[in-house]
Amino acid sequence: MASLDTSGVRFPSVVKPSPLPHSSNTAFEFLFSQPFRKGTATWEASPKELQEHVLSPIPPEKPIFRDGKTSATLSYGRLYQDALTVASSLTDGILNLKPAPLSASDPKINRGAIISPTVLLHLPNCLPFVTLAYGVLASGLTLTAANPVLTPQELAHILTLSQPAVIVTTAAGVANFQLAYKLLPADLQTKLGYGTKANIFVVNTDADDYGASAAAVAPPLRNLGGWTVNDWKVLLPANPKPFTPPKYTGSEDALRAAMIFWSSGTSGKSKGVVLTHRAIGSALIAVWHASTLGENERLVGLPPFYHIFGWANVLMVGVAFGATVTTVSKFDPVSYLKIAQETRATHLHFSPPIAVLLAKSPLVDGFNLSSVRGCTSGGAPLATSVIEQVYKRLNILIKIGYGLSETGGATQQQSMTWEDLKKQLGSCGPAYPGTAILVRSVETGKPVDVGQEGEICIRSPSNTISYLNNPDATSESFTEDGWFCTGDIGKLDGNGNLYITDRLKELIKVKGFQVSPADLEDSLCASPLVQDAGVTSIYHQDHATEYPRAYVVPFDKEVLKGGKKGEEFAHELRKHIEGKHAPYKWIRGGFVLVDAVPKSPAGKILRRLLKDCKGVHVQVYEEKPRAKL
């Protein structure tokens, strides 16, 4: 780890933002305006020292997205036109949805955010996701996206908060939404009308011909489990009505909700993170100047597009930077390495487990990755030793950054050489241009000195405006002067590099996804077998990720003796959790059977003490060492 350079001088841990323009108008119009060319309004408004980083014009025929399985492609020009067609169909076609009026902004609700009728994408990375996402951005409606592996209970929570007017999913997804729909109150079921309003659209991710043909044909309406559903391609009619994206003037783009991400919180259930059109566009300006990406990049689209890491660093980058992105819907190490080799990938984006693959797996020796100039690891911490091993083995730099759904990004290592990167190892690099960082005392709320630990706070045009319909979480997360309080503990060095040292919020990071211990504790305690439970994390070195571990007090005290009875008890709980939660939330760290969960006098679980609890450990998932991949 690089040593802190404070030069013996005490000064507050505050990084002031460098001057940087924010975007304007819809995020769609901004991204397709090729803003990083010389002479654009964004270029003109950028500091002189940043103006040398420019792009050439992006030709309409340039492939921007490519399907990793079929090699079907979307050109820059076709994506633009098809997105406008989707926007036309949503607002003036078969659905006739209209963006909420500007008068809908109420400072007392969602801090003034204007939430329009919402379109929910429930898909893996694929070409339809791309076109649909950009179509919603163009329409002025609000987009949201959910992980396809979420359970019906988890989907019901998202439906309750966001009340989507449209859902786009797979055939398997329809079955899950039908189960989720049954969990909703009767009046909400009537309002949403899924299955009868023809507002459910299906993508066949295994056999969709979109991108492989000039004019893909949509099959007719069909019935799935009693619901009437459309193929998504009915949103791409051969002769669409002309569509012009709305124009946002003044600060309207800073109020209109473009995207809602879903972020787990310490209180349990997911929170809807509302990002405005200005936030999304401004985040791309920061990414452009903080990254080392340039023209004609070839990227592997593995990070999920429904996650802020994949959204801001891959999906949006494809259009804004004119990069060619090859989509990957599901990770398989051989397929991933093969795509990186065959596409002559120039930059890879991934979570820490892929970095471990590059560092240790013998599979890598069979592939030529010489085209890869660098990698970005995000979503969770990455050990310095892994970064060193990858550089030694492949001569590839892995740079890490720090960001949240709520901030659209925050910091990024910007080193171009190993000698420079070595000085930043252990840190997340300096703040993005246009981003301010404050490290404040947890006790007093005042700035601490450089080199001292405190809570990290961020202020930038890319920040969320609000948590969707969650005023308590919103007020707890923002200061009166606009700082977003991350709940992460860290420190700044004298060069402005940020170090993450702890978490105030007790989230578990599983391969880049956030898992709330409280959520799992609620589910465990709902089992008739469980008297009490506490959940914390363990770190799996070989998998380079945290996993949840549950400390459980059984009603039947005979279980505490372990043996066959303990095994049966733990596996019953395993099945209980699997029925309620997505796979990344499963208790892969095992169950520890204990006689009590440590708590404060007020009854709060003392999670920092859980690892000291003595009990019988039962591992319910088989180990799969990464080194043997």
UniProtKB/TrEMBL annotation:
Domain AMP-binding enzyme C-terminal: residue ranges: 520-604
Domain AMP-dependent synthetase/ligase intervals: 117-468
SUPFAM superfamilies in UniProt: Acetyl-CoA synthetase-like (SSF56801)
Entry-linked Pfam families: AMP-binding (PF00501), AMP-binding_C (PF13193)
InterPro entries found in the cross-reference section: AMP-bd_C, AMP-bd_C_sf, AMP-binding_CS, AMP-dep_synth/lig_dom, ANL_N_sf
Gene3D superfamilies registered for this protein in UniProt: 3.30.300.30, N-terminal domain of ligase-like
PROSITE patterns noted in UniProt: AMP_BINDING
Any one biological process term the GO annotation gives: secondary metabolic process
GO molecular function: CoA-ligase activity
Origin: domain of life: Eukaryota
This protein's name: Uncharacterized protein
UniProt source species: Rhodotorula paludigena
